[in-house]
Amino acid sequence: MKKAGALYREGDIVEECWCGSGRPHGECHKPLDDKINYFKEKGCLVPGRELIKTPAQIEGIRKACVINTALLDLVGEKIRVGMTTEEIDKIVYDFTMSKGAVPAPLGFYGYPKSCCTSINDQVCHGIPSSRDILRSGDIVNVDVSTIYEGYYADASRMFILGKVDRRERDFVAITKECLNLGIKAAKGWGFLGDIGAAIAPFARKHGYSVVEEFGGHGVGNDFHEEPFVCHVGRKDTGMLLVPGMVLTIEPMINEGKKDIFIDEGNGWTVYTCDGGLSAQWEHTILITEDGAESLTY
Fold it and tell me: To the nearest whole number, what is the mean pLDDT of the chain?
């Protein structure tokens, strides 16, 4: 009788890899596990196996990300001055459901809508409403998350509406570059702190501040997984980044001070304390041996 979790080869019992590939551990994830143990023995914080996605899980996450990206593309085509954020939410819900998927935010800890629409001084978690009408000069972040066949994708984009001055355009562009720098810094066998170490100095060089209370996170098998991804950090610190980890990088950059508060009325929407603009871009990324692959471009 075949032993559970083992393979037979030439009369010997061979340990089957934990990832479910059906291959022997020694021919599959053992080299990766050995390298993780090397860093662990050096005193580094390393991820548990539950944070390292299997090939099957990565394929499922990729499919969710395809839908999520197409959704943001559609929002980009439809968004306009004069529409309400409630209309954006309807676009998100209808498109997601038409693909056999589910909007992850809807009902999440009681959240009432299918996406987040954060305008101007709203840092994140703006709730779509028929009362919020997009006006010329607004900058708005649309954050969408998709569940497809049990796997999660998460990304957001900034949209500039109508006539916006150079200051605002530069602010949005620099925030996007913060995201790009964070992705570039996220490499297999690097560290979580490398991401914030790349983002924060660049933002501050341009006179902006970085929100620290909210950040990125593990994602894929669930909406929010470990680790927390802070966009302020020190290089070579924090959890080891291992190929197979899936994270979001989503820097929230404030034009003024970093201080924020949560709307007591709805318990969700986060604002800048000084009323200054806030911007955010987000991608779901896969850590690889060669760097990070964005799954939501």
Answer: 95
